[in-house]
Write a structure and sequence with these properties.
The chain folds into two domains: 253 residues, FAD/NAD(P)-binding domain, CATH 3.50.50; 151 residues, no CATH class. It has 13 helices and 19 strands. The radius of gyration is 25 Å and the shape is elongated.
């Protein structure tokens, strides 16, 4: 039986996995395909090298039934791929490649070395061992098709590569300096596919006023953040965040950003509300404040607040609540204590904008998944054409879900393309 010829476009997480699986062969009846992996950058895995701030949050330990719920778009589509190549499968696979992993806070899984370069190097060694031909600085400019099927690609230097299947794994449109410039959307559109309009997902947010700039660099853990749209609470999330020169970022903000971006683009008014003491309800927090005042009634209000807040947040709190820093704690009135308590539980910042797509961790939107078979990643419109990774209209929350989706869809696409 002659080997099939498979072309993979894009050597990121999805493309590397797809190429290796395509070439490997996975049972006696399905020999590995002659596989070529084309990458526009001068080296593979450029974006993968910077994921997780260079530490590479490869997946999450959530049970599969919970993991699928972390995909705001594409939950039903991604389910078969996640079950076929799960988080446990990925960890075992990486361990076999010499990259052991460990679980950190929130079920996030990282390589023990906490170095994304180790993941990339292991994947590149693996695809090479499978016999994949990897060609860098080979930007694809066009899919080659005949009626009803794909037959190859043409690169910008005019070279033509012909194959029985093409896997488009070009990523999204975020971090364009890594090569993710939205090329795959044009390829898919040229083949007749619908592209769901793209927008930033997992993106920092810009806020009004000088509060965030005053707090720049301050990280908060165990904070609950809720999104209010046109005066009504829409959703909330619990976790870590950080203040920046332009607004807010961090895991909990990135998780909420998809809802915020959609609302802002619809012209709606968005406010973030921060519960800085989510473990305490109002009566318990009030009792805590009274205890602190009784314990040291003569100390300044500023010093009292240092028992409750990070020092950088204290002057901001004093200004926004309207308390004099050098006033004695016992002089705080019941009304002022209530204002303080309400602020600690409901500190608000209006959102003015989101950061641009080029700064988003993930792109929302992409190839319409109704036109792709979730069990094979094959196009329902063009024979031999497959998609994997962020080019699809599938995006997950922060915490390792997006890389898992990239590896899972790449695994499925590579095997199905080789099988024909």
């Amino acid at each position: 039986m002659p080997k099939r010829h498979v072309i993979v476009v894009g050597a990121g997480a999805a493309g590397l996995m797809a190429a290796g699986q395509s070439a490997a062969g996975f049972d006696p009846a399905t020999p590995g395909a002659e596989t070529i992996l084309l990458e526009k950058m001068d080296r593979p895995g450029v974006k993968l090298r910077i994921t997780g701030q260079g530490r590479c949050n490869v997946t999450n330990t959530d049970p599969m039934r919970e993991m699928v719920a972390h995909f705001p778009a594409g939950e039903h589509f991604i389910r078969p791929a996640l079950y076929r190549f799960s988080n446990e499968s990925l960890r075992s696979f990486l361990a076999e490649l010499g990259v052991p992993t460990e679980v950190q806070r929130g079920g996030r899984v990282f390589p023990v070395s906490e170095d994304a370069r180790d993941v990339v190097a292991a994947l590149v060694r693996w695809v090479t061992r499978q016999g994949v031909t990897l060609r860098t600085e080979s930007a694809v400019e066009q899919l080659l098709t005949e009626p009803g099927r794909v037959v190859g690609v043409r690169t910008v230097d005019g070279r033509v590569y012909r194959g029985d299947a093409v896997i488009v794994a070009t990523g999204g449109a975020s971090y364009p300096s890594t090569g993710s410039t939205g090329d795959g959307y044009a390829f898919a559109r040229s083949a007749g596919h619908t592209i769901v309009p793209i927008q930033p997902a997992l993106v920092p947010l810009e806020t009004a006023g000088q509060t965030a700039p005053r707090l720049e660099g301050l990280s908060l853990r165990n904070v609950n953040v809720s999104v209010w749209i046109d005066g009504r609470k829409e959703t909330d999330a619990f976790g870590e965040m950080v203040f920046t020169a332009f607004g807010v970022s961090g895991p909990v903000i990135l998780t909420l950003s998809r809802v915020v971006v959609g609302a802002l683009r619809a012209g709606r008014r968005v406010t973030l509300a921060f519960d800085l003491k989510p473990a305490l309800d109002h009566p318990t927090l009030d009792a805590r404040l009274l205890d602190e005042i009784s314990a040291s009634p003569q100390r300044h209000v500023r010093n009292l607040l240092k028992e409750l807040l990070p020092s950088k947040l204290v002057p901001v709190c004093l200004d926004l609540v309207g308390l004099a820093p050098h006033r004695a704690a016992h002089q705080i009135t019941a009304g002022e204590r209530k204002r303080l308590r309400v602020w600690l539980k409901d500190f608000r910042l209006p959102v003015t904008d989101h950061r641009p797509l080029r700064e988003a961790i993930v792109t929302a939107g992409g190839v319409d998944t109704s036109e792709v078979d979730p069990h094979t990643m094959a196009s329902r419109l063009v024979a031999g054409l497959h998609f994997a990774g962020e080019v699809l209209d599938v995006d997950g929350e922060t915490g390792g879900y997006n890389l898992q989706a990239a590896f899972s869809t790449g695994w499925v696409a590579g095997r199905s393309a080789a099988a024909g």
